[in-house]
Design a protein that fits this description.
Layout lengths: L4 H9 L7 E5 L3 E3 L4 H5 L9 E3 H4 L6 E5 L2 E5 L4 E4 L3 E3 L29 H23 L3 H11 L1 E5 L3 H17 L13 E5 L11 H13 L3 E3 L8
Parallel strand pairs: 1-4, 8-9, 9-10
Antiparallel strand pairs: 2-3, 5-6, 6-7
Helix pairs in contact: 4-5
């Protein structure tokens, strides 16, 4: 179950073995999630980080790929339950991935989506680019003096969590505003966008060696990202 890294590598390892393998996923493509942040910031397109599971496994004749969403597993009867039918199994590998942890604030998911799918990346990219467009529109209407706080609000991007995704997103947003979009607008300065990164732990990339955390924070600050460590977000 699952066409991510775990499920795909397990299926490929069993390719050619004297057994039948069925790979089930609710999507018919494999997604290279480490580069999702580049789709979210417009640096890469969706097809550059995804590939059809059937094509990837086309040379493994003992592997079937099923498109479907698993609704349950009956370990007594040895069947995986899909919405339309059941799939029997002798051995089951669960590789369904992970979910974002909002630490008891699941209501934040509505306004602060995670970054686990192409639709998440599309949604984030649209919000980021629309923020710049809206700020340009307000400034073009010569309302900047009366609504400058609104423009500043539109050009402020907050990221909670300085793990790999948070650090990558913050640095890419900074590069996008200070380089890619720097000369695209006539009435606003895209380089004035504020990128704020908050982390509960005392350093960014807390699961990495301290020397790498320090190097990453220096790089972020050189790009103009405001980094706040030992800071817990309590409300949104």
């Amino acid at each position: 179950m699952g066409g991510g890294f775990g499920g795909l590598y397990a299926a490929r390892a069993l390719g050619g073995a004297p057994l039948s393998v069925t790979l089930i996923d609710k999507r018919n493509y494999h997604l290279f999630r480490p580069l999702l942040y580049q789709v979210a910031t417009g640096l890469l397109s969706a097809d550059e980080i995804s590939g059809p599971l059937r094509s990837i496994l086309s040379r493994q004749n003992n592997i079937d790929v099923l498109l479907g969403e698993v609704t349950g597993v009956d370990t007594q009867k040895h069947v995986v339950r899909l919405e339309q039918h059941d799939v029997p199994y002798d051995f089951l590998i669960l590789a369904t991935g992970v979910q974002y942890n909002y630490f008891g604030h699941d209501e934040w998911a509505r306004i602060a989506p995670g970054l686990v799918s192409l639709s998440d990346a599309d949604r984030i990219r649209a919000k980021v680019l629309l923020a710049f467009e809206r700020a340009e529109e307000l400034a073009a209407l010569e309302l900047a003096e009366t609504i400058s706080p609104e423009i500043q609000k539109l050009l402020t991007f907050v990221l909670v969590g300085a793990g790999t995704v948070g650090v990558e997103m913050a640095s890419t947003l900074a590069e996008m505003s200070r380089m890619t979009l720097a000369h695209d607008f006539h009435h606003i300065d895209a380089r004035s966008a504020r990128i704020l990164l908050y982390e509960t732990e005392p350093r960014v990339l807390p699961s990495y060696p301290e020397v790498l955390s320090a190097k990453a924070q220096r790089h972020l600050e050189q790009l103009g990202v405001k980094v706040y460590t030992s800071t817990r977000v309590t409300s949104v």
